[in-house]
């Protein structure tokens, strides 16, 4: 707990707004197969505290996993289960499910009431506490709209499109539109137009390589600030690469290419680890 | 990228009159948490149960070391 005492925001909450913490627990996450849906931003979170009675944990989690589709089809957006590691209720389970609106909560509990599997679950687990929270912020590191790294990918796609247009114009200026519209056999672009052509080809390759990593990172629920930083560096490096290629700057261009390539590789590594 | 292994939940009481200001500060505090290792921070106010109006924050963490850093 090193950061909290030093956080000025935390100090102001205590001193200026009379906020008084009364409980802090740490939970170890338990695996639940639930494909999260983060758009639109969840507005409500239902917390359910439960104790295991006779079932072993694996059997209980298995039942919960079988119930997860009921939550999903009724409109739940995320579903997490944890077990307390600290505090007086050691070993207690907490289920947290987020929803876009109140009607999704109602639909979920109607569906659960009619679900054979959930009836089994409720028969086996004692729920002693249920809280409904109004969420202010689901707190993704980069805000609630488009994630930063997704924005950078879109921006890069746009830059590649502009680059293609500029490359075609440069080529047209060098060899004429009729040559470009023809079969292009033995068509060799040189100088500025040639360098732009090679930069465009490389940019398309980079786009094809980075896109799956960014999209998979987006699909993954756990998002840190690291992919944002990687994609920002990637974007800057790729812009520098194209500019230097067009201007005929060597070596530094290779450094820019290598930087962007490393960022792409690290995105993939982040997905695997 | 793997799923966070730990979740820290903190609950706090707050007078109704200062809740709005406290929630604004909570946004800043959430940012502090993200900068110190939390991969995700969720917060809000309870609207049912034993402590209506209480503020609750959730920090998702990859390792126990991250929890110590907070």
Count of the separate structural domains of chain A? 2
* Poorly predicted spans of chain A: 119-130, 136-145
N to C succession of SSEs of chain B: EHEEH
Low-confidence runs of chain B (pLDDT<50, min 5 residues)?
Answer: none
Question: End-to-end span of chain B in angstroms?
Answer: 21 Å
Mean pLDDT of chain B: 83
Count of helical regions of chain B? 2
In which range does the helix fraction of chain B lie?
Answer: 25-40%
Strand content of chain A: 15-25%
Indicate the overall shape of chain A.
elongated
Q: Assembly state here?
A: heterodimer
Number of strands of chain B: 3
Tell me the distance between the termini of chain A: 26 Å
* Average predicted local confidence, pLDDT of chain A: 82
CATH fold call of the largest domain in chain A: Four Helix Bundle (Hemerythrin (Met), subunit A)
Strand content of chain B: 25-35%
Give the topology:
The complex is a heterodimer of chains A (273) and B (70).
Chain A lengths: L7 H10 L2 E11 L13 E9 L4 H18 L3 E7 L8 E7 L2 H12 L2 H9 E13 L10 H28 L1 H5 L9 H29 L6 H22 L4 H21 L1
Antiparallel strand pairs in A: 1-3, 2-4, 2-5, 3-4
Chain B lengths: L5 E8 L5 H17 L4 E7 L8 E7 L2 H6 L1
Antiparallel strand pairs in B: 1-3, 2-3
Word description of this protein:
Chain A has 273 residues and is α+β, with helices and mostly antiparallel strands. Chain A has two domains: 124 residues, Alpha-Beta Plaits (2-Layer Sandwich); 130 residues, Membrane associated eicosanoid/glutathione metabolism-like domain (Four Helix Bundle (Hemerythrin (Met), subunit A)). Chain A is built from nine helices and five strands. A five-stranded antiparallel β-sheet of chain A has the order 1-3-4-2-5. In chain A, strand 3 and strand 4 form a beta hairpin. Chain A is elongated, with a radius of gyration of 26 Å. The two termini of chain A are 26 Å apart. About 8% of the residues of chain A have low confidence. Chain B is of the alpha+beta class. Chain B has two helices and three strands; from the N terminus they run E-H-E-E-H. In chain B, strands 1-3-2 form a three-stranded antiparallel β-sheet. The longest helix of chain B has 17 residues. Chain B starts with 5 loop residues before the first strand and ends with a helix. The model of chain B has no long low-confidence stretch (mean pLDDT 83). Chains A and B meet through helix 1, strand 1 and strand 5 of A and strand 1, helix 1, strand 2, strand 3 and helix 2 of B.
């Amino acid at each position: 707990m090193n950061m909290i005492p030093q956080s000025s925001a935390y100090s102001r909450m205590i001193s200026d707004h009379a906020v008084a913490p009364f409980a802090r627990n740490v939970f170890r996450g338990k695996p639940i197969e639930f494909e999260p849906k983060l758009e639109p931003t969840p507005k409500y979170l239902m917390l359910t505290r439960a104790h295991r009675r006779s079932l072993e944990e694996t059997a209980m989690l298995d039942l919960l996993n079988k119930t997860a589709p009921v939550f999903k089809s009724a409109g739940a957006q995320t579903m997490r289960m944890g077990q307390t590691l600290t505090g007086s209720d050691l070993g207690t389970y907490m289920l947290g499910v987020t929803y876009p609106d109140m009607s999704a909560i109602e639909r979920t509990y109607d569906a659960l009431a009619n679900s054979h599997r959930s009836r089994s679950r409720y028969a086996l687990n004692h729920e002693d506490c249920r809280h409904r929270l109004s969420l202010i912020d689901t707190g993704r590191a980069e805000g609630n709209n488009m994630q930063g790294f997704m924005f950078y990918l879109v921006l890069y796609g746009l830059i590649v499109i502009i680059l293609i247009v500029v490359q075609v114009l440069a080529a047209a200026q060098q060899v004429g539109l009729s040559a470009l519209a023809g079969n292009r056999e033995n068509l060799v672009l040189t100088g500025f137009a040639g360098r732009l052509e090679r930069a465009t080809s490389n940019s398309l390759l980079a786009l094809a390589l980075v896109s799956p990593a960014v999209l998979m990172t987006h699909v993954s629920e756990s998002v840190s600030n690291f992919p944002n930083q990687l994609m920002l560096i990637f974007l800057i490096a790729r812009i520098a690469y194209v500019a230097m290629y067009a201007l005929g700057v060597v070596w530094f261009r290779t450094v820019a290419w290598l930087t962007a390539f490393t960022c792409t590789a690290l995105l993939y590594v982040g997905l695997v680890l | 990228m793997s799923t966070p292994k730990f979740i820290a939940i903190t609950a706090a009481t707050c007078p109704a009159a200062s809740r709005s200001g406290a929630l604004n500060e909570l946004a800043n505090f959430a940012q502090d948490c993200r900068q110190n290792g939390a991969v995700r921070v969720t917060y809000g106010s309870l609207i049912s149960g034993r402590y209506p109006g209480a503020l609750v924050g959730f920090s998702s963490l990859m390792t126990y070391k991250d929890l110590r850093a907070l």
